Structure to design on (151 residues):
């Protein structure tokens, strides 16, 4: 019970810290998650809605609402998928790319600050333990074992 309670408390603290760090960009954490997922995809920074749903583990209805919001804000655009005429791709706009790049800088600095009291060895141990525990709930990326997911 103590471990789960501390995890819950840490979740509240880290969530507040993430919201504060992103505040400068005007992005909510859920907006950052979508934009950062597109950014990590690499040029042309586009994914299908289905790929976004799988990566973010949300429902299709939630994804539609999020994409509608981000598109109205000028951060993403939906484009026909050139490889599948029936499908769409969600692509970062230049504004979206600029905004998420700034948010990523702030997010990384925030993560360093949040983990500053841990040594490099402790951070590596924590990352390994969390990956191992997450495998109980989520399949590993690429279907492989250890070492397939970045710390």
């Amino acid at each position: 019970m103590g471990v789960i309670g501390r995890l819950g408390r840490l979740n509240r603290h880290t969530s507040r810290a993430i919201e504060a760090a992103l505040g400068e960009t005007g992005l909510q954490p859920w907006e950052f998650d979508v934009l950062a997922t597109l950014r990590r995809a690499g040029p042309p920074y586009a994914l299908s809605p289905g790929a976004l749903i799988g990566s973010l583990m949300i429902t299709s209805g939630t994804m539609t609402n999020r994409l509608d919001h981000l598109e109205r804000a000028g951060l993403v655009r939906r484009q026909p998928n050139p490889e599948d005429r029936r499908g769409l791709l969600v692509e970062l706009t230049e504004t979206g790319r600029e905004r998420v790049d700034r948010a990523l800088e702030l997010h990384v600095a925030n993560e360093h600050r949040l983990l500053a009291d841990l040594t490099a060895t402790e951070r590596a141990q924590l990352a390994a333990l969390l990956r191992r525990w997450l495998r109980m709930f989520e399949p590993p990326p690429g279907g492989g074992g250890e070492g397939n997911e970045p710390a």
In short: The first helix runs from residue 2 to 23.
